[in-house]
Amino acid sequence: MSALNRLSVDEFRKTGKLPLILVLDDIRSGLNVGSVFRTADAFAVEKIILCGITSRPPHREILKTALGSTESVAWEYSESAPEAVLGLTGEGYEVLAIEQTTDSIMLPDFLPSTERKYAFVLGNEVEGVSAEVLQNCRGALEIPQYGTKHSLNVSVAAGIAVWDFVRKI
């Protein structure tokens, strides 16, 4: 790791974090959860909130794709995604769903402020972000897609959204 100029887990925990929290709303696949952990580690995301049926470390599938990032990335569990979102809003986070809606903003058009803290909600692999959660979000960001399918794997969507956020901040 030192040859790659990587931080140790302890050093990583002490470094400044991106003003972004990822909320996982009923993610079925532990492999997807582990991949989101790796993305969160790569970009020093503040924290992940695992909600509902989303599996939690030390789940075997999470560990398989997280490759140790469950040790470096802060996380917590909330039984209720709507309550987690309301709590984040109360703490001053601008909460946005990564979802296709009639009112969504295309991701390239989203201009985050360096003066704010954000939370992105990613939803279930089949159903997306639940309607109850969506109504508690400030809005939705949509990743443009040009092929025949109009959905992305949730961990891929997380990677695109976080990278876009990092690039703009």
What's the gist of this structure?
With 169 residues, the chain is α/β, with parallel strands linked by helices. Helices cover 35% and strands 22% of the residues.
Oligomer type: single chain
Number of strands: 7
CATH class: Alpha Beta
Q: Report strand %.
A: 15-25%
Give, in spatial order, the strands making up the sheet with the most strands.
3-2-1-6-4-7-5
Q: What's the helix-strand series?
A: HEHEHHEHEEEHEH
Secondary structure category = alpha/beta
N- to C-terminal distance:
27 Å
Written overview of the protein:
The chain is an alpha/beta fold and 169 residues long. The protein has one domain (9-168): 3-Layer(aba) Sandwich (Alpha/beta knot). It contains 7 helices and 7 strands, in the order αβαβααβαβββαβα. The protein has helices spanning 9-14, 30-42, 60-66, 69-72, 81-90, 131-134, 154-168; strands at 18-25, 45-51, 75-78, 93-98, 105-106, 117-123, 139-142. Strands 3-2-1-6-4-7-5 form a 7-stranded parallel beta sheet, sandwiched between helices. α2 (30-42) packs parallel to α3 (60-66) and α2 runs parallel beside α7 (154-168). The radius of gyration is 15 Å and the shape is globular. The mean pLDDT is 95.
